[in-house]
Amino acid sequence: MRALRILLIVVVILGGLFVIADRVAVNFAEGEAADRLKATENLSATPDVSIKGFPFLTQVVGGSLDDIEVGITNYEAAAGNGAEKIRIDDLRADMRGVEFSGDYSSATATSATGTATIAYDELLKTAKSEPTQVAPGVTANVVGLSDGGNGKIKVTVEATVLGTKLPEPVSVLSSVTVIDGTVRVKADGLPEFGGVEIAESRVRAITDFQQKIDGLPGGIELDKVQAAPNGVEITVKGSNVRLAG
Questions:
Q1: Predicted confidence band at 184 (pLDDT cuts at 50, 70, 90)?
Q2: HEC assignment per residue over 7-22
Q3: In Å, how far are 16, 65, 93 from 50, measured between CA atoms?
Q4: From which domain of life does this come (predicted)?
Q5: Distance between CA atoms of 180 and 203, rounded to whole angstroms?
Q6: Helix (H) or strand (E) holding 244
């Protein structure tokens, strides 16, 4: 009986040491992965990297990690013209089936899903915020974007008719979609500018706009989008996503 107790104590101690070693190893690996991802994507701040699953060390021996969660704040994505950038807040991605090279210099996830947010003030930069003529004597421009409820964006437009600014801005609810990596905002109806007849195409030149988003980390792509209280919420996805190397 005494020998059995000793054996159990030894097993518990060894198990505890293994858990400690495993957690130390995973913490070190998370730090290394974060540093490599920062360098690979040229990030201004170190991202959050969390390696899921236990034990970690047996996954390392197998050359593949089941699940890695990555968080990046204030990521600057290409806006489609190669020069401008658009800020993406709180980009979160769940990487599945991450395989890495023997020297850990490269890592690729079989699949990835995640979420991100583009603030309304950031998306507003895409809209025509400078007064633009929509008819003789009539100019208009977008002055605000906000949550319109039920997944819609409220687009607020300010207009001037014959040199007089309308006393109140007009607004319209708009649908937001993603097509080929481009966020598109399209008005469900058309606002009226002081009763002046204006061609639909001229009005939509103000109310409707789009924003191309390129170069998301590891090659992930935009999937779906909808309006939310703090901005446009986007879901992202990808396959064979490169984390490093």
A1: very high
A2: HHHHHHHHHHHHHHHH
A3: 22, 11, 11
A4: Bacteria
A5: 25
A6: strand 231-244
The backbone torsions φ and ψ at residue 159, rounded to the nearest 5 degrees and listed phi first, read: -130, 150
Residue type, 86: I
- pLDDT, tens digit (0-9, with 9 covering 90-100), for 57-90: 677 666 677 788 888 888 888 776 555 788 888 8
* CB distance 146 to 154 below 8 Å: yes
State the pTM of this model. 0.78
Tokens for 24? 């130390």
Chain centroid, CA 142 distance in Å: 24
Cα–Cα distance, 48 to 110 (Å, whole number)? 20
Residue 222 near residue 183, CB atoms below 8 Å:
yes
Other beta carbons less than 10 A from residue 55's beta carbon:
15
DSSP symbols for 38-106? HHHHT-SSPPEEEEESS-HHHHHHHTEEEEEEEEESSEEEE-SSSS-EEEEEEEEEEEEEEEE-TTSS-
Structure letter (DSSP) for residue 217: G
CA 200 to mean position of chain CA atoms: 33
